[in-house]
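Hi everyone, sorry if this is the wrong subforum. Our group has a chain we'd like a structural model of before ordering constructs, and none of us has done structure prediction before. Sequence below.
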Amino acid sequence: MQLVQQGRYEKALAAFEKLLPAAPPEIKERCRMYIQTCQRQLEQSRLTFLTPEEHNDYAVSLLNTGYYEEAREQFSSILADHSGADYAFYGLALLDSITGRPQDCLKHLARAIELNPRNRLQARVDNDFQSMMDDPRFTELLYPEVP
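Answer:
Right subforum, don't worry. Here is the predicted structure as tokens:
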């Protein structure tokens, strides 16, 4: 477990694979889970993307398959390298909506709209914002009053 916490996934994977055959039945399933976690982390670290948009596609695929924390890491990674990537802010807003973080959702969506006003139109029809529909701040963000 210490190796996993330290991010040393290759060594942790080897240790769990060695432990698995001799592990008591009540620990075997947990070992398998940690093996999968290590494999997933190692796979992610090997990923390379030709463009930030390609990286975003991968992050969205993680989001769509329920790997929320991994998706959050990928969106954040995009923004670390490309601070103007409106689509990554939009992805974070979706993720925040799905995972029950309304304040973060509003912040990320506002930034996505600021960078690209078309995101406002997209958010109006995006079912992933369903949990935000009753929030008046969300409505104000999507339907600002015309002066």
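For your construct planning: The chain is about 70% helix and 0% strand. Residues 1-46 form one domain.
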